[in-house]
Amino acid sequence: MRRLLFVIAATLLVITGVRADVIELADSHPDRHVVVKGDTLWDISEYFLKSPWLWPKVWSVNPQIDNPHLIYPGDIIYLVYVDGQPQLRLKRGPRKLSPGIRRTPLAQAIPAIPLQDIKSFLSDNLIMERAALERAPYVIAGVNERIVSGAGDKVYARGVLAPKEQEQQFFGIYRPARSYTDPDTGEELGFESQSIGSGYLQAMNDDVLTLTLKQTSQEVRIMDRVLPTPEGAIQSMFYPSVTDEPMIGRIISVLKGVNKIGQFDVIAINKGTREGIKPGNVFYVYKVGETVVDPMTKETLTLPYERAGLVMVFKPFEKISYALVMRAESSLAVLDEIRSPR
């Protein structure tokens, strides 16, 4: 019976043309909004839209704006209807221009999301396979047999660099932090390595590497790993989107190491690039239903999942992705479910 109801519901969705990307206005949306310092594209989208990740669609017929993704304080966002469909338009506010032939707005474009909330502790963390981590060179000593070292110190590591890595001069120092296992399948998803610092490769003598530390966030210790620095940095502008296919996963970690998760916390989910995850993909979070005992029958029941938040992926790896909690209606937790909004 339940299967029959599901088939009927799916058929009705097809017949009525209900789609996940239909533009719906927020219940208390304004007719216009003047952009102020501190706004983000996500904030503005939430003022107007029930699904803020769909905001790029409402700019599609605004050709008079060179780049509508660049919005500055003082600009005016206003709502219009075209063929019965809501659209947002942008009216440029007053500008102060720098003197000279080349004119450039002094105001900085507002960001998509407040990346400053996450850069301080996450931007250089890595997720690696166990084999790759075990192959990486490891710190064996500091100068004068020091156990810990800091910026400006010289350290020695042992290991063999790949031919491509030998061409590099700058390396990161990482400390294995934790291993991740898929809570549903038991698959080993990888190891998280915390960025400790970075330094320049000064010499290679057989399998012994000599590095001078440029900067450190913690003391460099024996057995910390020496790895090439990531080629790409976290992008500063995101275009929120849904996955190509419906997807369900779980929160497997919160990077601050706390039990409860709130807005702008960084989480790890058990989906990555192999499942097609891309930066900007958004997911609803559903809290795991509580287990209760029926007072009449004494049966143990699991209550339904409840939607409790929204997250956006900003750094995907092969099997794991880091995501930022954009909205949390209630406290979230590890093992809560994520679902693509379809």
Short description:
The chain is 11% helix and 37% strand. The chain is mainly β and 342 residues long. Strands 4, 5, 7, 8, 9, 10 and 12 form a 7-stranded antiparallel β-sheet that branches. Strands 13-15-20-19-16-22 form a 6-stranded antiparallel beta barrel.
Structure overview:
It is a single chain. The protein has 342 residues and is mostly beta strands. It folds into 3 domains: 2-110, no CATH class; 120-228, Elongation Factor Tu (Ef-tu), domain 3 (Beta Barrel), CATH 2.40.30; 248-339, FlgT, C-terminal domain (Thrombin, subunit H, Beta Barrel), CATH 2.40.10.410. The protein has 4 helices and 22 strands. Strands 4, 5, 7, 8, 9, 10 and 12 form a 7-stranded antiparallel β-sheet that branches. A 6-stranded antiparallel barrel has the order 13-15-20-19-16-22. A 3-stranded antiparallel β-sheet has the order 1-2-3, with no helix packed on it. A hairpin with a 2-residue loop joins strand 2 and strand 3 (85-91). The longest helix has 15 residues, at 2-16. Mean pLDDT is 81; it is low at 1-20 and 102-106.
